[in-house]
Amino acid sequence: MAVHFPYNPGSSIHNINNWFMRYLVFLTTLLTLARFADAQPAPDYHQQLTVIEQQMDDAWATCDVPKIMSYYAYKAVRMPEYSHTLYGRSAIETYVRAWMDSAKVSNCQHEIIDIQVLKNHLIEIGNAKATILLGKNEPYLYETKYLHVWDISNPQRPVLIAEIQGSVKDLARNVLPAISILQKAVPSPSKSSLLERINEKNEIFARNVMTANGAAMGALYTADAIYMPYYRNLISGREAISNYYVEHESPTVTKDHVNIGISSLIDLGDFVIANGFYHVHWKAGSSEGDVDGKSINIWKKDGGDYKMFRQMVVHD
Question: pLDDT tens, 251-270?
């Protein structure tokens, strides 16, 4: 016997609504799972860079040039002590190979002291040391400080875009290999109001050096600034930096020419990363000479104007 159910015209709509709601729940669940699958935990940059620095130290000790160069961006800048600035990965690789042909490096170590994440860039500051054997010299423990600028657009694969390194104490030139790399002209940033403003700040620095006005230097730095001058350890805080300049800018040494230039600017809004260079002509009694060098400067907006936040300089 056939069983007949009464026809209910609303039942089809009810079934469609139930199916549609189940579909929405299913789709929402899939999207949520996809987000969790794609999401990556916030990187621990201190741990990540500690591993990278160790890998680079090992590569220097084993002369693994491809491994070293794998961490450099195509337009990276390297500022070694007692050598001109190297512009571009090709020039850096030529320098690294020339160094390895001249000297042996062992016991390389890096110690990270400070990390600042500035949008898609990271500033790493630390101390490093390595034993250098150059020619017939006795093994030399090269103790340095360094500043690395990383591009962290891909947080899982940081790449070096600028670096500078220099001794924490007086250093004889014959301790390091004498390497000269032929390069193209020094690059320069595009004209802009920002470039004009940073140039104005550099002119104040130059004027204070020429007038031996070390007491005025502290006001150009943020309260939490770190300054890394040549031949000594890093200096932390505006007061300590000011004390350094008062001592360093001695009126017994005349600087009759000071030029501070800029080779590149990276505008990060409240921060500016500037690669630069300088030339100073000095006189002290019957002696005189020229000093050339380079620097990485990180400026920070402070009270409506730019002040120095992180800075390191070394001589050519």
Answer: 888 898 999 999 999 999 99
125 contacts: CB under 8 Å, gap ≥ 6? 112, 113, 114, 115, 145, 146, 147, 148, 226, 228, 234, 310, 312
Specify the pTM: 0.86
**Cβ atoms 264, 290 nearer than 8 A:** no
Long-range contacts of 280-287 (CB under 8 A, 24+ apart): 280/209, 280/255, 281/255, 281/256, 281/257, 282/253, 282/254, 282/255, 282/256, 283/253, 283/254, 283/255, 283/256, 284/252, 284/253, 284/254
DSSP assignment of 113-127 equals EEEEEETTEEEEEEE
Give the integer Cα–Cα distance in Å for 201 and 205. 7
Gap between the Cα atoms of 276 and 260, Å rounded? 7
Q: What is the pLDDT of residues 132-142, one digit of tens each?
A: 999 999 999 99
Distance CA 174, CA 25 (A): 72
What's the confidence (pLDDT) of residue 5? 38
Rounded Cα distance, 140 and 134, in Å:
8
Structure tokens at 43: 């990187």
Q: Are strands 103-118 and 221-228 parallel, antiparallel or unpaired?
A: unpaired
Within 94-173, strands assigned E span: 103-118, 121-134, 140-151, 159-167
Tens digit of each residue's pLDDT (9 = 90 or more) over 112-127: 999 999 999 999 999 9
